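Please review this one:
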Amino acid sequence: MTYKSELDLPIPQFFQIAKAANSVLRLGLDIGGGTGTFAARMKLYNVTVVTTTMNFGLPNNEAVALRGLVPLHVPLQQRFPGGAEGGGYLWLDHFFCKGVDLDKVFGPLIGKLSYRRVKWATASKNEKNGEVYLTALLQKPVSR
């Protein structure tokens, strides 16, 4: 597998991580999924991914549906339940924000979930504005 940066988490590597942890991947939610490319790739692995879309001048919902995938049109202020099963994953891919916000807001907020950090990588998006990217793969602990 080739990587462009430490932020990359190719789908095959994700499945290797899940297999090593004896986790089965069945369902995913792709927030801001555009035309559903991620969902289409995951479908090849028999994983259903619901893709949230916004139709900003483009018929993204229709494009997702035409690919035989599950589109979900949601407004920006929509809140989602965070209910992953024990052993399930939360994957943040190239999430961007101000570096100071990651340190003072998002990092501590993610920490409150008490998920295990499988991968946590940051890189500068725009040094001038202090923006950073975060790619994180977090696993929900299994309740005993």
About this structure: The first strand starts at residue 27 and ends at 30. The beta strands are 27-30, 48-53, 70-73, 89-98, 116-126, 131-139. The chain has a mean pLDDT of 85. The first helix runs from residue 11 to 20.
